[in-house]
Amino acid sequence: MRLLRGHIERIAGTVYGTIVALSLLTAGAAAYADDLWRLVVITAAGMIVLWAAHVYAHALGESVKCGRRLRTDEVAAIARRESSILLAAVLPEAAIGLGALGLIGGRLALWLAFGVGVAALIVQARSAEGGARALAALTPRRSP
Predict the structure, then answer these.
(1) From CA 62, how far away is CA 57, in angstroms rounded?
(2) Rounded mean pLDDT of 57-84?
(3) Sequence-distant (≥ 6) Cβ neighbours of residue 78 within 8 angstroms
(4) Considering the entire predicted model, what is its pTM?
(5) Do 78 and 134 form a contact (C-beta atoms < 8 A)?
(6) Model confidence at 135: pLDDT above 50
(7) Residue 141 forms part of a structural domain
(8) Do residues 4 and 106 touch, judged by C-beta distance below 8 A?
(9) Which residues form the domain of 77?
(10) Closest of 97, 94, 136 to residue 3, by C-alpha
């Protein structure tokens, strides 16, 4: 369930990663419907490049904000925090992998990947909504 929902503190990365994974799969679906392994590799490579760019951008921003070069452990912490982008692609990629292995038909694998991705976005939205309500309940109200 955690792969579907993501962690509430990393919901932005999970949603972003899900949308990017779905867009990569959608872009390659027609061209690679008969070569699902290639679609898996292209999607995974695209996700890794996007994640690395995201980590780099955040690390650069933190470095500028701190006025110094970040230590390795600080960059590693950013990479871990942003790993939700990569994890968001696991379930859609697994669905395509089932088709690539011949365990299910290719067309079904593609639809399953899209269905899992859309379901993940719905679950993520509900999770974020619940998290926002919980946070609001814990926040003291201001007097007018």
Answers:
(1) 9
(2) 94
(3) 55, 58, 59, 62, 70
(4) 0.78
(5) no
(6) no
(7) no
(8) no
(9) 2-134
(10) 94
